[in-house]
């Protein structure tokens, strides 16, 4: 058997940003027909590395060799010519353009009079999406699509260019199981045609499904590249975090205190029909349900983001009615929402992202307390070990786990005592997850009440005192901590 061609070789690649060294020394290679899974905690440098290979960032040092030829400066155009395609983590689509335009941007087919042949273009787009097993109307604007659909359009756009080297940066984070399996079929097909792929994911369970080799990054260096058979979860987690994870679910018993939140016969949105529960200080109440059971509308309804159709909410024994989220914040609620982008001001550093929560309590014309903002930002960045520990970097440069810590810091600084964690670990890595859970334990110990809405069974079992299971917009079971098991939760949910 002949050795497979080396498509890509990196030697001591470095990348510095002002104040941050994202990549210290990256040496690795990629073979034709292999899927190399790239792992690393948030902030390890994975996306930066992909953008360098796609010519979007320029390496500060080191050499990159593509199919035997050293390339000194890689531009997006050159990367394209060399057959390198990148599926971005943050999707790179143009929201106001149609699916077809996004897939074929600048390469739309023309008729002999050089007019765009839209019929042909839409047909081509439809076929490209068919190959991924999805039917999306190619004429609609991308901004009308759901995140999963947008992700599939992004993938189709890159595949349409017929890459020899395909880089996939967390392509499955928004996909359903079915869509993910279909993507794996596509990946296997490309593999058999000799395409080399670097595949980034937080789902360790995907490794045995597609990987040939696994490379682990930590703090901008390659820890190791190993064959997939040797990359069991324990091994790679230890490599990723640089230590054995002491405790994944650092739950502590907390004293149960006064009634903090009472919800009665609540109905809202399309799926939430009739839900009642109470939540006390010191308690973590879990909410579990399968897709569409109503759990995704609970947080918006409680936080004044979505109108209530029936029922009532009481905070600290007083009936409340929130028309805006600022009303909820003023009553002492805090929301860690399932879509971080909705909670953050990405163009601002930590400070304004914290003080945002004080605004609702501030008299309209009173000046914002900048000194307090500075002091509290510094304190929380230290206490919660936010990385980078910078008070000047915009939050858009922080990893998901670190953005999540800043949102938590916001509610800690606002003194919120009823905290709604809506899918709190979505898209964050194992190390940051354990830190978020430790913070939850600390918050309830300090007297907060937590509502934890999660689709991760093991997280609910690890952290909740009680779990309400939803089915068809109603409560189908209430399980105490000693009754929590995967089987039990699933049985009541389905
Ligand atoms: N454009 C940028 N400017 C400054 N720092 C950045 C930029 N992009 C990424 N970083 C920093 O580089 C490090 C690596 O980030 P990233 O490559 O996104 O990590 P990963 O994809 O592994 O989560 C982080 O500390 C991040 O804050
Ligand atoms: Mg990334």
Strand and helix layout:
Layout: E1 6-17, E2 20-31, E3 35-39, H1 46-53, E4 61-66, E5 69-71, H2 76-81, E6 84-87, H3 99-104, H4 118-130, H5 147-159, E7 165-169, H6 177-192, E8 196-200, H7 207-210, E9 213-218, E10 221-227, H8 233-241, E11 259-268, E12 272-280, E13 284-289, H9 295-302, E14 308-315, E15 318-320, H10 325-330, E16 333-336, H11 340-343, H12 350-355, H13 370-383, H14 400-414, E17 418-422, H15 430-445, E18 449-453, H16 457-463, E19 466-471, E20 474-480, H17 486-493
Parallel strand pairs: 3-8, 3-9, 6-7, 7-8, 13-18, 13-19, 16-17, 17-18
Antiparallel strand pairs: 1-2, 1-4, 4-5, 9-10, 11-12, 11-14, 14-15, 19-20
Residues 17, 20, 22, 40, 42-48, 388, 397-399 line the site of adenosine-5'-diphosphate.
GO cellular component, one term: plasma membrane
Main location: membrane
Subcellular location: Cell membrane
In quaternary terms, these chains amount to single chain
Spans of at least 5 consecutive residues with low confidence: none
The main pleated sheet reads as:
6 strands, mixed
CATH class call of the largest domain: Alpha Beta
Give the class from helix and strand content and strand pairing: alpha/beta
Strand content: 25-35%
Q: What does the overall shape look like?
A: globular
CATH architecture of the largest domain: 3-Layer(aba) Sandwich
Bound small molecules, by name, code or SMILES, are: adenosine-5'-diphosphate, magnesium ion
Alpha carbon gyration radius:
24 Å
Mean pLDDT, rounded to whole units?
A: 90
- Cα(first) to Cα(last) distance is 50 Å
Strand arrangement, largest sheet?
A: 6-7-8-3-9-10
CATH fold title of the largest domain: Rossmann fold
Domains counted in the coordinates: how many? 2
Helical amount:
25-40%
CATH homology group of the largest domain: P-loop containing nucleotide triphosphate hydrolases
Number of helices: 17
Strand element count: 20
């Amino acid at each position: 058997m002949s050795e497979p061609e080396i498509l890509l070789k990196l030697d001591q690649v470095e990348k510095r940003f002002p104040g941050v060294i994202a990549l210290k020394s990256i040496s690795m290679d990629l073979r034709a027909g292999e899927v190399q899974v790239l792992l690393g905690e948030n902030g390890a440098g994975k996306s930066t590395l992909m953008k360098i290979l796609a010519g979007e960032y320029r390496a500060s040092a080191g050499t990159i060799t593509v199919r035997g030829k050293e390339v000194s400066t890689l531009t997006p155009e050159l990367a394209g010519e060399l057959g390198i395609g990148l599926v971005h983590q943050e999707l790179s689509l143009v929201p106001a353009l149609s699916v077809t335009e996004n897939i074929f941007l600048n390469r739309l087919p023309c008729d002999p009079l050089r007019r765009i042949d839209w019929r042909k273009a839409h047909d081509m787009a439809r076929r490209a999406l068919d190959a991924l097993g999805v039917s999306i109307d190619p004429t609609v604007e991308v901004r009308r699509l759901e995140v999963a659909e947008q992700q599939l359009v992004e993938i189709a756009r890159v595949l349409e260019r017929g890459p020899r080297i395909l880089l996939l940066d967390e392509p499955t984070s928004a996909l359903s199981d079915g869509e993910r399996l279909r993507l794996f079929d596509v990946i296997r097909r490309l593999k058999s045609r000799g395409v080399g792929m670097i595949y980034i994911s937080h789902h360790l369970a995907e490794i045995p499904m597609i990987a040939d080799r696994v490379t682990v990054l930590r703090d901008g260096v390659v820890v190791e590249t190993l064959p997939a058979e040797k990359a069991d979860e324990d091994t790679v987690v230890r490599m990723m975090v640089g230590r054995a994870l002491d405790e994944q679910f650092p739950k502590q018993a907390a004293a149960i205190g006064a009634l903090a939140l009472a919800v009665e016969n609540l109905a809202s949105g399309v799926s939430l029909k009739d839900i009642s529960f109470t939540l006390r200080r010191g308690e973590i109440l879990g909410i579990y349900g399968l897709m569409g059971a109503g759990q995704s509308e609970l947080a918006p309804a409680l936080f004044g983001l979505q109108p209530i159709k029936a029922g009532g909410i009481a905070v600290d024994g007083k009936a409340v009615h929130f028309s805006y989220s600022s009303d909820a914040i003023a009553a002492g609620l805090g929301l860690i929402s399932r879509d971080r982008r909705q909670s953050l001001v990405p163009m601002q550093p930590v400070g304004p992202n914290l003080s945002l929560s004080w605004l609702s309590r501030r008299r309209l014309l009173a000046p914002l307390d900048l000194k307090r903002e500075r002091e509290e930002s510094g304190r929380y960045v230290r206490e919660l070990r936010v990385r980078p520990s910078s008070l000047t970097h915009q939050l858009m440069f922080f990893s998901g786990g670190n953005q999540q810590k800043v949102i938590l810091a916001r509610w800690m600084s606002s003194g919120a005592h009823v905290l709604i964690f809506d899918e709190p670990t979505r898209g964050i890595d194992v190390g940051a997850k354990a830190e978020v859970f430790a913070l939850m334990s600390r918050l309830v110990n300090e007297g907060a009440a937590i509502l934890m809405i999660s689709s991760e069974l093991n997280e609910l079992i690890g952290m909740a005192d009680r779990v309400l299971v939803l089915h068809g917009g109603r409560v189908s079971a209430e399980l105490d901590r000693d009754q929590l098991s995967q089987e039990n939760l699933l049985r009541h949910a389905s």
